[in-house]
Amino acid sequence: MGVEPENTLRSFVRAEHEGLDVIELDLHLSKDGALVVMHDADVDRTTDGAGPIAERTLAELRELDAGRGERIPVFEEVVAAVRAPLQAEIKDVAAAQALAEVMRSRDLVGRVDVISFHDEALAAIRTLLPGVRTALVASRYGADVVDRAQAVGATMLSLNIRRLTLELVERAHAAQLKVVGWTVNTHDQLRLARGFGLDGVVTDQPEIRRAVRFTA
């Protein structure tokens, strides 16, 4: 999203072209139950429209401009547009059922990790899709985030790097949890991530991928 319209097919294709390892996207349900790819619960910030996603049908959402003429995509379109592994973030707990159905019907359990701020969403998706890989996302958190991840069967933590400590990373690793930090858009943040010994970083900028390869 640092170089293309956020959560659009154009952005995801660019990410794959730039060689990023995994593409993260965000999911909400439209009024008629479509898995809409957008970060916010409303369309105001990233389109020329206004109001909640949940109050519009997919057809109504398609009428909006999501940047540079892009239309709001649905999850199935992203799956078809790129071949890279995906992280699907459930923003709305109600989306877990719909996501599970699509992943099951298209045999996506091996390709798509499901991530969420909502513990209950991760618990639900694991019940619906045994064997799915999940990650707990957290912005404001304490040491108990490791216990929370274990309680819902997550194998990874995706954490706000501004609150991260080496002690917490070590505790997570001791519990066999991978840790990724977000959002890493500068070289200083990348050096911090290296110091923490993170398993990966989330970035909006393709140049961070290149910096990972050429800096120590």
From TrEMBL:
Designated name of the protein: Glycerophosphoryl diester phosphodiesterase
One example of a Gene Ontology biological process annotation: lipid metabolic process
Span of domain GP-PDE: 1-213
Coiled-coil segments: none
Taxonomic lineage from the root: Bacteria, Bacillati, Actinomycetota, Actinomycetes, Kitasatosporales
UniProt GO molecular function: phosphoric diester hydrolase activity
